[in-house]
Amino acid sequence: MTRGTLSQSTTRSTGSPDRLSLDLPEARARAARLAGSLDALRAGQERLLELADRRERAIRAARPMELAESLRLETETIRSIAETDAARAQEAAWFAERLGGNEGRRARATWIASRLPTSMTAERQRIESSAASLREAIERVARRTAADRLGAERLARHMRGLIETAGERLGASGGYGSRGQRASARPAAVGIDVTS
Questions:
Q1: The pLDDT value given to residue 44
Q2: Which of 31, 34, 47, 79 could form a disulfide with 91 if both were Cys (CB 3.0 to 4.6 A apart)?
Q3: Which pTM value belongs to this model?
């Protein structure tokens, strides 16, 4: 059956029978949009990884303009990911309503795929594949973010150490205080040899 409405009985994990009803042409189109949004989300995550590399290169080379541009692009990418996820959530809600789920906009793609009828096997496989690829990309971004956070914390500790060391050295001469501020002049013990 490729056209029309598909109705079939299913049994949910609770054991209670459900009636699901899908208009197949619309369900196929929505499944394609859902898989497409998952693919776009994966591409967005991969873009974040590329931009993280760019940001790291800018930091290492001490190029603040490149760093600012990288951060701007990261912000744009995150905004795009949020918009794409909103579209994914709309499709998820549509399927959840028709497939007997109460998850609504939070319905997971793998849950949706598992509930699609056998006549939609190709769509099920595409959604599962896209969801798996997205999950892998998200995990890579999470690992990279954790590594970047650790690196930033180490850099911050190093910089604090440098500032403290510089403050101590400059403070000993009486010109600067502990926070790098100019200190008031201290009395100095000065002796002049006038016998020579």
A1: 97
A2: 34
A3: 0.71
